[in-house]
Task: structure prediction
Amino acid sequence: MIAVYTDTADKMRSEDKHMIRKTICSILAIILLVSMLPGVSLAAGDSILVRVDIENHYDLARTLAQKINELRTTPDIGYWDEYNYYYIRPYGLTSLSYDYGLENIAMLRAAELSLYYSHDRPDNTSVATLFPSGGYARYQVISQIRGPYVNTIFEDWAAENKYYADQAIRRHFLDKGLTRMGLGCVSVNGIYYWVLLICGGSNTGKSPVPQGSHLNIQASLGLLITNGLTNVHVEEEKLTVKPGQTIYTPWIIAEKTDNRARIGLIDPEWKTKSTGIISFEYPTNEYNKIRGLNPGKTSIYWSASDYYLQVPVHVPCETHTWDAGKVSVKPTYTAKGLMLYTCTVCGEEKTESIPKLEPENIDGILYEFSKSTAIAVDVDSSKITSLVIPDTVVSNGKKYKVTEIAANAFRDLRKMTSLTIGKNVKKIGANAFYKCKKLKKITVLTTKLNASAVGANAFRDIYKKPVFKCPKNKVIDYQKLFLQKGAPAKSKFERK
Ligand SMILES: [Zn+2]
Result:
């Protein structure tokens, strides 16, 4: 897509090229309408410095300049008069000189087009502000096209076989009164922005000055917002500045919705609601700063139109004064916990880990506790000969029902001969008594066990002919259950 037209600044000769394509007319009309919409409320100042990421294309720009001079020096070249009646062949045309001063301006203008596609500059000033005073005649031609197509641009501008109304740029090319030109071409996300500046007067004689891939451009924030910003954000999650020191205010990063140009709003006007913790400084010839005043936590915010951004700012003390701390993550028997400490002066936070909970040894059995129940998980000696899982245990003055024997809790207790399982046990984990080779007398007081509550191999590889004493109503049930869970085939099951 190409939009081509000329611009005449102050004191310039007025000459307009009609729109080449109707679609472009409508697009430009929309841009005009949008930019006239009233009521964009800005908290920030109207004009802002914007950094835009671009690719420079000096080679393309100078190739196009060459083509213009080739056209200009073609014998018998001409254009239609305003009545489309006479074909005018200017006599004695010579090449335009290539003016690197103009080129620099044109490159900047091309970058500006990626922010605001208009003959005016993104800060709403005229292009005339870029020229040295003196008021020589000059024209600005702008185009945008998806792709690096020099020929397409040239053919559009040269407008061969078209009549007067469409030959404005061609007439500049063939204007005897013009003497020099400079071209700009930059691309943003595959869209190429072209600017031709063409003038009379004498060459400024400057040598080429390549510009960087980032350009700082003064732009109207209102105009940028009206023309569409997206993904408006800051890259800093939080800022820290010590008392008496300064840091730069963060840039605001955004993309243009029309071409996804990545731009940075430099020195946006941040504000803060708190007093006494930070202050702002606006040095000349330097970016804006935040000064840390007194220890504390605050934030800065920026808002414009629908956008609102906030960044926390922390001014830390030299030496923190930590509070007593509070548990932010409770430790468990399998994972560490976290203790959160807060500085009572500046609000700084730090965490320290809390060690995992350790099982408690009560009468030789290790227990883990939940709210009101205890789980037997181990013994303190593998030489134990008799094990009694009690009905309840007391820890820190509180009574807990022993409801569970953990998986593997008492496996490999090779000297144990007798075992009593308390009346509150509801669950026995897998392999709980696996390979207790001498275990031959098992007294079961609980009536709460069933197939899903006893893990696989709980009684496997114990003594070959053990005796299970069971509650009277449970003898048959438990016989079936324990045999399923690994009890030897020759086990006896008796009433207690
Ligand atoms: Zn502190």
Observations:
- The chain is about 15% helix and 35% strand.
- The pocket of zinc ion is lined by residues 295, 316-317, 320, 343, 345-346, 348 (CB under 6 Å).
